[in-house]
Every structure is written in C-alpha cells, then in structure tokens.
Design a protein that fits this description.
34% of the residues lie in helices and 17% in strands. It has 4 helices and 5 strands, in the order H-H-E-E-E-H-E-H-E. The protein has a 3-stranded parallel beta sheet with strand order 1-4-5. A two-stranded antiparallel ribbon has the order 2-3. It starts with a helix and ends in a 15-residue tail after the last strand.
Length: 101
C-alpha cells in the first residue's frame, strides 16, 4: 500500500512511474534494463534490504530517494548515505534534493 501511495504522489507531481515493484530482484531487473532519470524506493522490499539496488543506482549515477520507517540520522549506511524520506510522509512537503552518487 505504501508503494502505491508513493507512486500516486509522484504521478500527481508529473513523474512517469515505473512500478511499484515488490522485490529487490525485480527492481534490479528494471534498473538494469532501462535508463532511469531518478528512483524512489523503500529501504525494505518484502523484508529484504534494498542495499543491492542502492549500490546499482549509485554505480549508474541515478539520483534516488529512500523511503524508510527509520529516521534518516540512523547509522545505517543505506540511510546515512542517501536522501531519505521517513514514512509516513506528507505529500504536500517537498522531497529532499537527491544526492548524486
């Protein structure tokens, strides 16, 4: 439900959304098969950490934002080294600037 909500918010803002996807492996398939201008993804997809996706997006230099239930000031490298929006989020508040890998 959270991914569908995020996709709706992004589409309303004018983004072309690819997804949502339910697994890290599916997200990796999409990220390797198409050119992405940016990415917004959950830190966990079906209880699997999204670190491999973050690493691929960083390698491809795709700006991204991580959605997380954990605060951004956590010592977790996935959250510390990427732009983070904490769930639940207010869609009327701007997303943070994406950090370039």
């Amino acid at each position: 439900m959270l991914a569908i909500h995020a996709a709706d918010v992004l589409e309303e803002a004018g983004a072309q959304v690819v997804g949502p996807v339910a697994t890290v492996s599916h997200a990796l398939e999409l990220a390797t098969s198409m050119t992405l201008d940016g990415a917004v993804y959950n830190s966990l997809l079906r209880s699997t950490r999204a670190d491999p996706l973050a690493a691929l997006l960083d390698q491809q230099m795709v700006p991204s934002v991580v959605l997380s239930l954990t605060p951004a000031d956590n010592e977790d490298p996935l959250l510390r080294d990427h732009s983070v929006v904490q769930w639940p989020f207010d869609p009327t508040v701007s997303l943070p600037p994406c950090r370039m890998p």
